[in-house]
């Protein structure tokens, strides 16, 4: 595509008299430049992409998009916001690939990864080739690719969509983080369905207030369509038991499908029966009353299943097919995953790293624990500090044996993170073991028949981030070794 054609998507009212080179690719990293690339300078949290513009030209860039003018040998197009320009240009350059996909976005504090996997299963069982974008990986027709973010930057995202389209994917399910919404990473995504799980405290380091956090998530619903679209229909699938839903209903012009347990909703779960291996409930919906059986446990899992049933219905899949798919789901890696090495106590690895998810996970464990409940929990460094005392308090309130340890300390001092956690504890005994491996070994040694150990916070993660180092660490592996060495 010619430069002038490409930038006409940004500023259609302007004409350009300068050079008009052929653009071979769009890049925001000087290290990925090929001959003829358009380099977009992004001001990052660590470095400023504008400082790499000269290098990008040396490497073959044919033009530059920047927030300030620079004296370079190739055309420099100045824009007010280069992140926004990147979203517009990536979408245009790659032929608006998200329009070729049936695109479902999921936002909310907890449950996005789980719900996206449930929806992917429902859609792929209906015979479609699927794609998935989220915290654990990008998956294209079953093949997994490594990721850095839950929701990638707009350029990476559009490239993934293009690859999906090229490989014959027709339906894509993606997690949409509040950071992504706030930064405009999803500008240019043509969503068909937007799903909301819940809103509880997290990421206040970034959003500062719960109101700002709620509004960031609301962008997914306001961007879903400002005109009523019936063909194809656009749907907002919303949790009626969460207060924030009221404002998302006001924000969207899409069709609304609500779900809930405690409040009346289009899809409501009643008579929830739980055992330690599964859950059954009655689903009341416009299609009648159906029994839903699943291998997942916890009230929060019922919400996740209801959200995915909503997305399935909005996609046009029959309720019977959806219920059949749900029954087969065995769970998502690192979410309430049991570690079984023949021991006579239970070990569960879970990704609960927010106050609400920790409370949910521990209340679920308590329902089935016959004796003591150990919880091994830490809090991530360079993340919301105000959740630390809250998580510690919840660990003490909902377990008999809380053990505070390190999660991913990142650039912070692990002992300071533990001190922040301790602020939340009043009178309840707890143990401090900063080394995560030691903490797991301690609990495994102390546990007796019928006890439960919940290892919270890192779920599927196979690393620990300490300072600048990435160390291999997998809670499931460590727990297994500890049990085998007992
Ligand atoms: C704080 C944050 O959001 N950082 C994101 C950001 O990185 P950054 O700002 O540090 O980038 P940078 O290193 O300063 O580089 C700036 C620019 O210079 C360019 N550059 C850099 C070096 C060079 O040699 N040449 C060059 O051109 C870079 O390509 C970039 O365009 O841009 C990167 C590329 O898009 C992201 O991967 C990265 O996410 C990091 C990994 C991160 O941890 N983000 C978290 C806060 C986040 O976004 N989380 C959410 C929510 C998670 C959830 O709750 O599920 C998410 O969606 O992941
Ligand atoms: N609907 C829910 N409500 C509350 N807690 C939940 C819910 N679903 C899952 N959880 C808890 O939250 C943890 C994380 O779940 P999941 O990975 O699905 O969420 P996520 O929103 O993708 O998280 P992240 O923002 O880190 O990507 C789970 O391990 C579980 O403890
Ligand atoms: N997506 C979340 C994951 C947190 C996982 C937890 N293990 C931590 O490192 O805090 C984040 O980046 O805030
Ligand atoms: Mg996730």
UniProtKB/TrEMBL annotation:
Carboxylation is probably crucial for Mg(2+) binding and, consequently, for the gamma-phosphate positioning of ATP. Its EC number is 6.3.2.13. This is UDP-N-acetylmuramoyl-L-alanyl-D-glutamate--2,6-diaminopimelate ligase. NCBIfam families: murE, PRK00139.1-2, PRK00139.1-4. HAMAP family: MurE. The keyword Nucleotide-binding applies. Keywords: ATP-binding, Cell cycle, Cell division, Cell shape, Cell wall biogenesis/degradation, Cytoplasm, Ligase, Magnesium, Nucleotide-binding, Peptidoglycan synthesis. The modification N6-carboxylysine is found at residue 217. Residues 334-459 form the Mur ligase C-terminal domain.
